[in-house]
Amino acid sequence: MMIHVFLLLSLCFSDYGFLPVASLGINYGQVGSNLPPPDKVLGLLSSLKITKAKIYDTNPQILTTFANSNVELIVTVENQMLAVVMDPQQALQWVTTHIKPYFPATKITEISVGNEVFTDDDTSLIGYLVPAMVSIHGALVQLGLDKYIHVSTPNSLAILQESFPPSAGSFKSQVSATMSQYLQFLANTGSPFWINAYPYFAYKGAPNNVSLDYVLFNKNPGMVDPYTKLHYDNMLYAQVDAVVYAMFRLGYSGIEVRVSETGWPSKGDPDETGATPANAAVYNRNLLRRQMRNEGTPLRPNTKLEVYLFALFNEDMKPGPTSERNYGLFQPDGTIAYNVGLSALSTTSSTSSSSSSASIFLTSSADKAAKMRYQSLVYWMFVYLLAFQVLLRQH
């Protein structure tokens, strides 16, 4: 009997404290000179138990390598291709070449048509966006893939004219006409609205006016929207709800908002306040904890917020300030850039190969307390069982 009880308790206890990450994806950028090959990346994602990733192209090596894995992929039509795929025949050719050969072995779940088109320096792209999306979706319909693959585009938070308080959220007037067409497309196809939201930028821009704890998800008083009376304890959720209200103002209430990029740089230039390993670790660790709870925002508490972390690797070839090259959780060689709760189980290197294996352990204080109670319960069960055995032998 004791052996059976021990085995049962061991099975129940073996994985206690390991918290799977839900509603979480990661951006797998490739603007680096020394990034690991896709098979190593797939191994890293598997060890992290991350099953959603986004790439910024349709790299055939990645699409081939990720076949028959459990990783869902969002792929991208690059901005320079929008004018081409506006033509339905060109869009069909693009989907036939870049998507059909890999699907369904590779779990492509969405096509991002462009990236931050509404705020791109090339303003002509705005006019191409919706026709390109319509043509790509039409090609998916022709090939019978529209039931499995959505079409959308990631947007910079700079599309908002107002974002504070969240209920004042509104789009800039110069994009509102095309934005209405875009929202109608999303409503017709059941696709999500993606936003690239970085509380870091708000803090960097006004460190004396923006609470660091508020942007890092740390404990803080938060803010109450004076019009809705909803309480916000972090800036990311406020930014997401500002987008929801902006859509309300254009007459769209049923479109899901997801976060296509968010993160915090671990290094920056002297004028990039807050770009430190400590802040990056806190932001991403707290964000991961929130994702484990399947939380929604104050405005939509029952809809879990899907978030894609930026980014998997530091990318040394990205232009711009130092922070742009230092958003990664990992260095290109697979070593951890900073401690975000990614516990390295093994890291080996040689002249021929290198590998890294890590798992996400983010046990909160409440989880630790529950674990201690569980351990105590197990201990006393063993004590009582031993006493019972002694009594049986005496009789």
Automatic annotation (TrEMBL):
User: What keywords are annotated for this sequence in UniProt?
Assistant: Glycosidase, Hydrolase, Signal
Query: Which Pfam families does this entry report, sorted A to Z?
Result: Glyco_hydro_17 (PF00332)
SUPFAM superfamilies linked: (Trans)glycosidases (SSF51445)
- What's one GO MF term for it? glucan endo-1,3-beta-D-glucosidase activity
The reply to whether Hydrolase figures as a keyword in the UniProt entry is: yes
Q: What is its EC number?
A: 3.2.1.39
One Gene Ontology BP term is: carbohydrate metabolic process
Q: Which InterPro entries match?
A: GH, Glyco_hydro_17, Glyco_hydro_17_plant
Class of the enzyme per the UniProt entry, highest EC level: hydrolase
Catalytic activity reads: Hydrolysis of (1->3)-beta-D-glucosidic linkages in (1->3)-beta-D-glucans
Q: Where are the transmembrane segments?
A: none
Q: What family is reported?
A: Belongs to the glycosyl hydrolase 17 family.
Q: From the Swiss-Prot or TrEMBL record, give the protein name.
A: glucan endo-1,3-beta-D-glucosidase
Q: What does the record give as the organism's lineage?
A: Eukaryota, Viridiplantae, Streptophyta, Embryophyta, Tracheophyta
